[in-house]
Design goal:
Blueprint lengths: L1 H13 L1 H10 L6 E3 L9 H6 L2 E19 L3 E19 L5 E15 L6 E19 L4 E18 L7 E18 L7 E8 L3 E5 L7 H5 L8 E4 L7 E11 L2 E16 L2 E22 L3
Antiparallel strand pairs: 1-13, 2-3, 2-13, 3-4, 4-5, 5-6, 6-7, 7-8, 7-9, 8-11, 9-10, 11-12, 12-13
Length: about 290
């Protein structure tokens, strides 16, 4: 139990930069006022050259198919529906070509086994804070971005058929590299943005019981058995990527696309995966913030 508490304190320390970023954005010392919105079309570097800072807000809604497995609860796969929501806030930084982002997401999944006599429900909430560096090529028509951040995940999976050990806690902290590619097609004089976004966990820690170990043993009898595991691409090979196309509507953008979310783990003699294929619709709006300082 003492070891679990120490790891929990470590997670809280890693999430402190998120709180600091939010405080910096609302501080009176920034001396900013809202300016005209550009619909999210103008490159960030051009805004910086004009002495402006921008705040970009995006809402994503996704719906699709999921395939779930967690051998702690059952050796059976469960297939069903995945509902996903994500909100991303981004602002350019004072350093040229750098942007900071904060992403918050939630998903709810439900499925049944092959015999259709048992059901599983799962949920996950995530928060990620990071930075991206931007390159503009081909007269600003091609944009490349690379960087990453720290992501914390907290969720559950519940098997409605089980009586002993019916549920499993999901908790992880990961360093997440991220890359983005966007190309402006300019259809009929209007921006038409084709974009690809991908991220994968590189290094982190994850909570997991061992095969046959109950939660009563862990939390009541204080039977710790390497339940906090270091994760790498070798034991948690995972990928989240999205391909989308954005249409400019008035002063905002409408995004349509595909989201593939493949989460896998093979740790403590337990295997789990969640493979989701989803249709995405999103809305994006950029608020231009012009500095009052000379």
């Amino acid at each position: 139990m003492k070891t679990l508490k120490l790891h929990f304190l470590f997670v809280l320390c890693c999430l402190q930069p998120i709180q600091a970023a939010a405080q910096d954005d609302t501080s009176p010392a920034s001396h900013t006022c809202p300016a005209q919105d550009d619909g999210g079309v103008m490159p960030t570097s051009q805004m910086q050259d004009r002495g402006e800072r921008t705040s970009l807000r995006t809402h994503f809604f996704a719906l699709g198919y999921t395939d779930m497995l967690d051998t702690y609860l059952s050796p059976e796969k469960y297939r069903g529906m995945d509902v996903h929501y994500a909100y991303e806030w981004e602002r350019n930084m004072k350093r040229q070509n750098w942007a900071e982002y904060l992403m918050v997401s939630a998903q709810l999944q439900g499925g049944h086994n092959r015999a259709d006599n048992a059901n599983t429900v799962a949920g996950m909430g995530s928060i990620q804070n990071g930075m991206l560096y931007t390159w503009h090529l081909l007269d600003n028509r091609l944009t490349l971005r690379a960087g990453g951040g720290v992501q914390f995940d907290l969720g559950f999976i519940y098997n409605m058929r089980n009586q002993n050990n019916p549920a499993q806690l999901k908790a992880a902290l990961n360093i997440m590299p991220r890359v983005q590619v966007a190309y402006n097609l300019k259809s009929e004089g209007k921006p038409l943005i084709l974009a690809y976004d991908a991220m994968t966990p590189l290094l982190g820690i994850r909570f997991s019981p061992r095969y046959g170990q109950s939660y009563y043993e862990m939390f009541v009898e204080d039977n710790y058995d390497r339940n906090i595991v270091v994760t790498t691409p070798f034991n948690t090979p995972s990928l989240r990527h999205q391909l989308s196309i954005a249409f400019t509507l008035n002063k905002a953008q409408l995004l349509l696309g595909y989201l593939g979310d493949y989460q896998q783990a093979d740790i403590n003699d337990l295997k789990s995966h969640t493979w989701s294929h989803l249709f995405v619709i999103g809305f994006r709006k950029r608020l231009s913030i012009k500095s009052l300082q000379p």
